[in-house]
Amino acid sequence: MDQNWTTLDTDLLVVGGGVAGSMAAIPALEAGLKVVICEKGRVLDHCGSIGCGVDHYLTVMDTGPEWDTPEFLIKHVPELTDGIVDMAVAGRVIREMPRIFRKIESLGVDFRDRKTGDYYRLRSFGLPGTYHINFDGTDFKKHLGERVRKGRATVLMRTMVVQLLTEDNRAYGAIAFNFRSGEWYVIRARSVVLAAGDVNRISRNASGLAFDSWHIPYNTGDAQAMGYTAGAALANMESVEATLTPKGFSCQGLNALVSLGAYFVNRAGERFMFKYDSKGENARRAVIADGVINEYLLGNGPIYLDCRHLPQELLDRMEHTLQVDRYTLPAFYQQKGVNFREELVEISVSELSIRRSGVYFRGSGLAVDVNGETAVEALFAAGDCATVSGGISGAAVLGHIAGEGAVQRVRSTTGALPDPDRQALEAVRARSVAHLGRQDGMPWKEFEDATRQTVTDYVGVRRTEKGLQLALETLRALAKREPTLRADDLHGLMRVHESRNIRQNAEIMAVASLARRETRTGSAHRRLDYPQTDDKNWRKFVLVERGPEGPVVRTLSTERPLSDAFARRAATA
Which domains does the chain have, with CATH numbers? Predict the structure, then answer.
């Protein structure tokens, strides 16, 4: 391993090269700033949650009808999120949607239907209008990557950021290493954007294979863990998300299924979703997942997908768009001998992720203000690691907002960047490389499996105080074993860091879940010992911050923006 440090100075450091990270880099590059992107993936054009493509994009387009305006959608956001939402940030994201949509089109993304030349818009997931554009987004990420490269950003692929650099509650860079070459970096920056996605690989799934996940398995809560350690506040971490997948094959595609008119039926052939929501299959994702879970618990499984009633035109579109996200899905159906056009397809519930709780405009992660800035000055967050999320469009819009906010922060910053303590840097590296080649250490896979089993057994989709306390005891016992984790090579060392981040996020989730003594939003947070939604006492944010002995919880009324809880705001008021 190279014992020297590579030092880079830049205006903006972006952690994560997916949609949010790329969109954050673009306005900074357009402003003439120097940008460094650290990304764990191999190719910028195909990294992140939609590296292989996307088939839906949510946006207001301002085409004329009242429903297609930002203010109309904003009016419905409290209902869509059960009142747990930062309206200041959600409002800005929605108002910026048309502008960012047009900008993405200008980068070469074609949202139009290739047969009609028009936008194919659909209604789904409880939204009050046909805001989803169904399209072939196979090259969506490629166009964003091309724009970043043309702007001459420095892109460090196969590079994992392991710790932020802060001084006086201000971020000024990060420590990272390349898990192919072993090169270690000190990157100093005037602003940092965290855009490393949600938290996956955190619970067991139907196949038992951790990397067979509905969402990208390489998003492991790196941003949330680093931001928490640096002093940022996290919110909504008790809210989890799951989806419905074909049995034996985890993949995205629920949006296409429900928006194009598929039904879900139980073993008796009953179309049951209307028992759980008046919108049936067009309910919010969290309600759909909860309905399926409940049917299984009632003994009404297996549960099936039913597309037999759909016209051939819609079945053709469904078959095409479902393979955009996961191109191997048609081969899976063929090998299983399943024809979804003519027969029922058995489905299962996916693993959990800490993401956006099955609703739009309420994310689980780093609390941000209207500029995308966290409680740590000059530290921004966007995408599924932030508290306002809306799928790909939410990542794109908040990413761009965070990039613009970072430009403002850079331009207002004067003076030289701090010099990091060399002894502290060496200590970070020494602790990391100590995992390499340990003979008596715990394998990272075993450690991760223990975390997943704990979350599945005690946190999961049906929670109790006793179970959550047991989860915390187990997760904290696992934390004591982290120094002994074993990595066989540099790639394994990256996995060790991911495993530690997954465990940290699981602990934060359990702490937040224990604090919220109510049930809210279906399977997003269901307490069996507090089965009712309690707006009087719990229509509030649960915030988690780092304390002297671990995660500390406090609450904030949803009548106030999350930024009111930021320590840096209080200190300067």
Answer: 244-349 (3.90.700.10)
